[in-house]
Each structure stands twice: as structure tokens, then as C-alpha cells.
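Justification of resources, computational component.

The compute hours requested in this renewal are based largely on the per-chain cost of generating structure records like the one below. Each record pairs the submitted sequence with a full C-alpha cell output. That output is archived, and it is also reused by downstream analysis tasks.
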Amino acid sequence: MPNKFNSALTRLAQLDKSVFEPALRHIVSVDAGEMNVARVSYWGLSSDHSSITCQVLFEKASATYSNGHVLRATDYPGYFRALLANPEIVADDAWTDPRTSEFVDAYFRPFGIRSMLDIPVWRRGVLAGVLCHEHVGPARTWASDERAFAAGIANMISVALEAGDRRRAEEGYTLVGRATNDVLWDWDMQRNVIEWNDALFSAFRFRPDQVAETIEWWLERVSADDRVRVKRDLKLLIDSGGTSYSDEYRFERGDGSIATVIDRGTIVRDADGVPVRMVGSMLDISDRIEMQARLALSDRLASIGTLAAGIAHEINNPLTYVMANIALVIDDVEAEIVDHRSVQELLGEARDGADRIRQIVRGLQMLSRPNEEEIQHVDVAAVFESTIKMASNELRHRAQLIREFGEVPKVRMNSARLGQVMLNLLVNAAHSIKVGNASLHQIRVRTATAPNGDAVVEVRDSGCGIPREVQSRIFEPFFTTKPIGSGTGLGLSLCHSIVAAAGGKIEVFSEPGQGTTMRVTLPAATEEPAPPQKLSAVQGPRLRVLVVDDEPMIRRCVQRMLEPQHTVAVVESGASALAEIETGKHYDVVLCDLMMPRMTGIELYSQLVESSSSFANRIVFMTGGAFGDDSERFVQSCDRPIVGKPLDRRMLEHALASVMQTGA
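The structure output for this chain reads:
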């Protein structure tokens, strides 16, 4: 996102939003100016989703405001269906887009509007309205950074809505208009009967005949990955005499799709402390989680961009002696002066350097992967060490890095999110210290096990510290103490969300002029996964292997590693592989690059599946790890073996063996 957009968001973060109407007027006027859009408006969605009402419309040319216009679902059913099904509406040509074309005669033509960008505005996890950008003039293609900025503006309106709610509550007014899709439940624990309000059917797409009034019915619809934990934690709360329940988990809707929900409740006990009833509410926060995931990925990529020079330095050091050693070996071979011991030493060092580069690249992949869903047992120290490598150049010019790695349990969360938390803490610690005089400052990184068995991670710096008057605000979205244009203020807010979602907490201890300690505490993983199998040498039958890769050097490399053990043919594209297969030649295994120009490995696989070809069960995918959304979904759902580049002989032999063991 351009710095001007970041700067605008940072300025708006400081705006007093407790009085909603003036705050909203200021926000939409800034939005119109930064986006250069003729008309920007905010429309509130009625509780029954039957209409939207314009709460403010700002017209840039005249700098005037208006409000009050109402659009009804009965008049514009297509638009309302699109708004409720997929709230973000990007209409580069709004006249022809089926979601917005209903407005042409009554609205677009009179005002000269050609393009629309509508962004959802949420209020406590519920769709509250829509932020509408109306471009006057020729059709406009909305750029990705403009869409991201608009999402940030919509978030500002969400903050203003909730700030207004808090102000009215403090003044003693009763909050009204609670979200109609809050699902309320009442569990009679003695009869084991649970009753749901009607919102269950609309919010989670159930038919009445799909719902049973038992706690077992609810548990069966908790995702299998979360069920054991949810059941265990609920039982522990009931047995321990607790009364307040709160959990976040994945829940299967009536149509089979998966929602992420927050479930909160209260246990009612009789005079003897026996639990007799539990009441609460369940809220679908899937859209919020998706938006947070996008913001988190943007923040990680921004962090990587900040550290780009340091990462290049970390790669160039080993790359220097890798290239130099290979050049020396080539010179000796060409001069026919080959000292086997010297060659072995030079190539060994080159291999070590290449492996060092591979570890750096894997660290980058860990932080930049868009998929945030994979939850696993994560080695805290290993992620910390990988993250330190990413930030090392940022750290070394400001302070001495001191590691105090004690025994620490594994935690159950997403490794990229944990890496993002650690990277933010390290970079913040570095930026609290001015460049130069690194010998006078320290940044201590520490891992330990808490007395209750939790994992503890600390980053302690000797920097400038955090002023006491702002310490309570550092986890607020878009709040930053850095100069305008130097930071978005998202880092610590996202860290707080990530840690809280994993069941942990993040704390700050700081004294101005004395430095800051950031402490993260995470619950230990309760079930240790089976250790990964070590790859051993495989001696199998001679196979016919087809290698498909658009990179000539990759094809030659794989061919050299597999020959003379196997018979290997190579082709440069998915289309060539399909033609080779259609000739009737037999291949036991097809090693295929996942992403290639023209016909990808995914497309080749799909065609083989559609034609019921047995070759579909013989494919092993190779990938360098750069995934788009479609390929990421394919990787998650496909049952074919996938090997990551860089490749080695043992890895390839195991992949071939796995295909043969399945009887393809």
C-alpha cells in the first residue's frame, strides 16, 4: 500500500470517534480525497436486511454532505443478494456488472456514475453497512492497493460505530439494535436439552429438521480438528466450578460449509454448586477472521519488505563462497589439475552454503504463505531462530543480540502466525534503538517454560521505552508511536489477536529511558505428534519416469539424480507431457512441476482425472512453494505427493517409492 495511504490511515487512527456523525463525515471526506473518487458514502443496513439507508454522502466536487436516501431489497434484489452473500463488490463497469446493473437508469445515468467499489463495514462481527465509492466518468479499474485502503477506511468506520456504542453506554443509554444473527442457546444440563433461537437457521443455514436439541448434536458439528479440545475445555470448566465460558472454534453449517465462531456463555449452579443450566450466544466471525488474515499477510509482507536489505545480505554471504568454490573447481577441472581432497572440501563448503540459503528461503516462505489455516505442533525455538535470521541485519547495527533459549514446550498454532508475532517484536525492539553504538545496547531473546507448563517467549531491549501515557493503547489497531509514513500501527494489534486466538496472552513491561520487555505466553500443545520419519536410502525397482518442468536446468538436474537407477524422459510443458502420454508410452511415475506457463501441473492433472487416465495416480508434484489462492487450495485438497524444491536424490527416491506402494 502506498505511503500516502498508510499516512492517511495513521492520521485517521488518531481521530476522536466517540461522536459518530462528525467522525463519519471526516472519514468519508478523507477517503474521497485520497482515492480521488467523486462520491463516497456510508449506508447502514437494516436489522432485517430489507433496506440500506444513506447516513452520509460526500460529493468531492462541491465538498457537500447529504443523507437519508433509502434503497430497498424489493427494488434492487440482485444488489442485495450480492451484498449479503459476498459483501465486497468490485464493479469496474457498474453498468454491465450483474450485481449493480439494476441502478443504471434510476441512479447511475443521472449522476454519471460508471464504476463502484463497495466495502463491508462490520460491527461486533456483524455486517452493519457498506462503504460505497462511486466513480464518475469512464470505467475505472480498482487497484489492489485502493481496495486495501478502502478496507482500512471501512475498519475506521467500524471503530467509530463501536466507539459511539461505548460512549452511549457510558452515558447510561441502553444499547439497541443488537445483531439479529446472534445465535442464542439455552442448555438444560439436567435433562440434556439445548434450545436455540431462530437465528440459528438464518445465521448457520440449518433447516429445522436438521437440528436436534441435544448437546451431542452440537458437538458433532464442531470441527473434528477442534472437537476434542472444545469438549475437554468445557468439561474442565464445569467440573472445576467455573461459571464463565468462552471459546473460539470451527463449526459446520447446515449446508456443510465451515464457520469460525465465538461461543460465550454462563453456567448457572444450584445452592450446592451443581450445574443445572447454561445459557449463551454463538457468533459467526468468519468474515472478520478472513479480513484479519488479509491484514496479517499484508503486515508480514510489509515486514519482509522492511528487512529486504538485511535478507539480501544474509543470502549474499553464503552465495559468495558457493559461487567462488564452484568457480575454483571448474578452473581446476579445465586445467586438468584435480586434487580430490581439495575438490571435496570446496564442494562440501558450497553445499553447506547452499543449505544455509535454503534455510533463509524457507524462513521467508513461512512468513509469506497466504494460507493461515494449518494448525500444527510448532517448535517455538526453531521458529524464533528462523525469524532472528530474517531480522539479523536490522538488529546487528543497533544492539548486541543475546540468546537465552531455555527448554520450551511446543505450541499448537500456525507457524507463520507465530513467526509474524516474533518478527514484529524483534523489529520493534530494534527500532527502539538508534543505529550506531551497537556495543552499548542489548536485545535479549528468551524462551522458557512457565510454572504451569505454558511456553514463554520474551524480547527485551535497552531502547527508549514506551511513554506511560500510551502503554494502554499499543495494542489498538492503527495506533503507532512512529512518525507518519513509518508504520501502519497494525503490528502489535495483529500480534495481540494472533496470541489471543491461540489461547495465550501478550504483556508489555516498559520504563521510559530504560527499555521494554514484551512477553508472550502460549499454552503448551497437549498431544505430541508422531515424530517425522527420517528419510533413509531407498533401493527399489528400475522405473520409467517422465519429468515435466519448464526450467531446462531443473529437468537436467532431476534426470542426472535419477539415472542410471531409472529410465528418465523429460519434457518442457504440461501440453508436451499430455502428448507424450497420449502416444501410449508407459511411465511408472510422472514428476511434474506444479506451476508452469501455459498448461500448469494442476491443469495437466485435472485433464488426466477427467479422462480417467491411470496416470493421474502416478503424478508426483514438485514445487518451489510460490502459491496463488487457487494453487493453495489445490495443494490443501489434493492427495498426490508433493516434494519441495530444492530437490535431492533421497527425497525423489522416496517420492517414487510412495507412488509404487499405492499400486498406481
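The chain is about 40% helix and 25% strand. The two ends are 48 Å apart (CA to CA).
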